[in-house]
Here is the input.
Amino acid sequence: MKFRTTLMFAAMFGVALPASATDLVIATVNNGQMIQMEGLTSVFEKQNPGIHVKWVTLEENTLRQRVTTDIATKGRQFDLLTIGMYEVPIWSKLGWLKPIVPDASYDENDLLPPIRDGLSYKGKLYAAPFYGESSMMMYRTDLMKKAGLTMPEKPTWNQVREMASKLNDPKAGVYGICLRGKAGWGENMALVTTMANTWGGQWFNMQWQPQLQSKPWEDAVSFYVDLLKKYGPPGASNYGFNENLALFNQGKCAMWVDASVAAGFVSDPKQSKVSKDVGFAQAPVAVTPKGAHWLWSWALAIPADVSPSQEAAAQKFVNWATSKQYIDLVGKTDGWGLVPSGTRTSTYDNPNYQKAAPWGQAELHAIDTANPNDSTLPKSPYVGVQYAAIPEFQGIGTQVGQYISAALSGRMTVKQALADSQASAVRQMKMAGYIK
Here is the structure.
């Protein structure tokens, strides 16, 4: 009845009716920057009254499973996907993604080269970076000072262990170090892979044979498990990025090695109890600096089989959400320390960001020096720092992550976890035809 009345009113007074709205369904991860974008959606909708945005916000492991299944089976549940540098080249090659079409004000050349290259296929952008990151050390300056310790600009893992032993104070509710322990190829294995890299390891040798029982992997994983068991929080195998962020913000972590994007959150007095006492350094190294810190971007991509109207709406949203104008909007709305960084040169050149983000140059250095094409001491056949950019890696990395998490929780030894990891990886690489 209401619709019929509206039609009569329009006919009587010559009022033009708006075109029917396009619903744009976006799948994203439950990280702070993405939730921030969801909160600013009304700004986009006011600028584009014919588009209504619907969000499906998921935990990281669940998001990966849902979007992979949806695009592979052409489920058409989502019009926009939040994916990363692992998926983009693989899915673009398979023809699963639409190229991103920047508008006149987008300034694609302003994108940081390592991030832009990682989201491109044959020189064309197939996903636009919402934020980019490397990994870095975040630590409590007040606790370091109290203990008479100084954090090096480029610490080693042995130095980190020594500092963790002196900073660990469980009775006071402070743990020497917090690290990812939750199973997942993009959760615990992001960190563990960088540790294996810097101990001189690799996922596969040049003949694509898995190397998970090599000495570097055994040394790195043994160090990781021992470090967290002695100086980490109880139940560390349940903690991923978001859980450790909450712990750090509550003042329970003396040190934390994780995504550089966390720097803004731990420095925000609205979120962090220790915002005034946080320092930053490069991710720790061991035998080699190669592959010691990761390179990643959460980016927005458009499935290849969306309808023309959905694609047009999706392209508009991508251009808005990954633009210089959006970064400026966040800076003015939430503060320059919370803007999505790691994507544009102009962000790091902005005096407002420089003033609000003392970690900015350390983050930019980490991003610029991460090399997905040369991230291991021995030569490797794959591209990627904290992953191997082959379709099979998602399954392999997920399974290995479960074994490593089991070793951390004490349900199996490191040797057994790596033996089972090797057997699983060999089996999957044989099935895929990489090895005989």
